[in-house]
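Tutorial handout. Part one gives the primary structure; part two gives the three-dimensional structure as tokens.
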Amino acid sequence: MAGRRKPGQRIEPVFESGKRKPVHGEIRGESRDEQRDTRRRNARSGQGGRNGGPPSGKSGRKTRKSGGGGRRGLLGFFRRSIYWVLVLGVWGFIGVAGIVGYYAVKLPQSTQWSVPDRPPNAKILAVNGELIANRGITGGEAVRLDEMSPYLPMAVIAIEDRRFKSHFGFDPIGFTRAMVTNLVAGRAVQGGSTITQQLAKNLFLEPERTIDRKIQELILSFWLETKFTKDEILELYLNRVYFGSGAYGVDAAARRYFGKSARDVNLAEAAMIAGLLKAPSRLSPARDPKAAEARAQVVLHAMEDAGFVTDREVTTALSMEAKKAKRYWSGSEHYVADMVMKELPALIGEMRKDVVVDTTVDLFLQKKAGVLIHDAVAENRDSHKVTQGALVAMDGTGAIRALVGGAEYADSQFNRAVDANRQPGSAFKPFVYLAAIESGRTPDTVRVDRKVKIGKWAPENYDHKYRGPVTLAEGLAWSLNTISAQLISEIGPKRVQETAARLGIHSPIARNASIALGTSEVTLEELTSAYAPFANGGYLAKPWLIRRVTTLDGKVLYDRKQTEQPKVLASAELGMMNSMLQRVVEDGTGKRAQVDGWQIAGKTGTTQNSRDALFVGYSANLVTGVWFGNDDGTPMKKVTGGSLPAETFGAFMTVAHKGVPSADLPGIYLPPQVSIVPERRPVLPAGNPAMAPVDKAVLPQTAGNAASQPARRPLDEVSGAPRPSGIVGGNQQANSGKPRNILDILLGG
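Part two.
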């Protein structure tokens, strides 16, 4: 009964080596035929032998020979990876193309695209063609690629876009490298934009960081690459990109930082300019010279790595100091440039393209004048409390030869020669004396130097001394306030005002007695021009600066026409005034203004408490006015018109007249007390004996008498002398037959 199974009893399989029939219900193994069939199926399907072992026979040997399933799996992985990369690349390209197409549709049609004109520049030239300055938004002129220093494009390519010559407007390698660097650093360290992309951004787009703008930038860079050559793109970029401190373009940067043209920069200077592109404002040498120098060294090594320069050149450049201009647009010539830009719209209208402006300025004299004013202020700032100065020099036609508006343009661009109204002090007295002479007085008219009171006004002399009877010539030479006050009391303020206006004073002149001492404010430019008729033979001389304006291709936009100026000073009065004003320099308050070998005339001026000190004088060739003072009107310390201004005038005029043939001042004055030689008695006209054509032998040899000097040559025979136009009008006063008051008769007037 043991063979029988109880209900619920489990039967375990039993495997025995002997041959026997299986017990009923046992699990038995496969038969031999079944095993053979199983092995065949496994061989075909690649499975192992019995119990998961390796297949036997021929198929097993083939598997081992082929290197195993692991190698086939790795190869398959690579194949599948390449496949999916290609698939993703295709779809990515389609996606990018779709995005680009979307934004391209939003842009105007490419047929309407054009590179905007560079902001116009005015190239301002001196009378001999030398460059004074460039003016415009960019701060410099456009320079062709083949004209600029070759180091500039090499430096920019080396540090900004090494593969500029080979890419198509977008550099995938550079972009990827920049992105990886930025991710590693955790911040924006490098930019991936090419030069073409940067140009597209500068030309067409606003400086905002958005996906839209970057895509538009990419589209526009592709268009630029198809429209222009690489050299044209580089030239456009170098002439427009910002280099900090208000400089746009390499020429503006070179002039801003080194005081030279982009044509002349050396390797060290080019490296510094190119280095500014990373952060123009922060790396500007004007702001942080050390940072700019460190960045320039990076650029130099980048140029060496790119093969643009040799190790020896880099070593030489590193040893060279990039000589930086001391100050931004330093130099007095920039006062002239500002004047040109102020006057230009009235002559040519809106400046729509680059222009060339020819001026009347002598750049050598301009720079000399600037140095004299700067040095005079620097030397007397502490000792005499002087902080500012100005100078104007013009020829007899009113053409400005030099103009300095301040001690240092870099510190202050305010033009004190043109825009500052200051009291002229005694420098205004020549108009008082001229009005008196035109009213019948002469240089030998006598007045008493004494205390004077006109209403509540009681003027005193500068030295608080009184000299008794003096001639008008002495009163002007010694700048006696009481004599001027007496004259204006006699002839009236209105007559003085009209006389000053006739000679070129356009500022409002108050009609009161105190104008005799120069209390009404004027500009240095108009005061100087009002002295010009004394130098040019009596003709009005309106100040002017611009001779001609042309486009770069030579089209004339403005050409100053020579116009006849009226004669505002009669010959007789001219001779008397020059005789008196010459005496001011010879033995009066203006002795320090003398110039060897030349007749110099002029007048000093000092306002109350030395707030202003002036000297305005002239030769037959040049009229010059000099002013010193303080912008806030604080008094200087012991500075008068006969000291610092007269000294500066003399130094400037000495340089200006070096090598110029000497010429005498126009007009002759003969005092009425003439020594008569019996055998050569002169015949004096009844109208005005002061201008009689008398032989030199019969004239008294007195100091200040023009006739005692060597014979004069006519003005038009002197090289370089002004040649005013003919007489077209005038305002001459007749002296003969004029009533004389009792004071004139008693005092010999």
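Part three, for discussion. The longest helix spans residues 69-106. Confidence is low (pLDDT under 50) at residues 1-8, 10-30, 47-66, 674-749.
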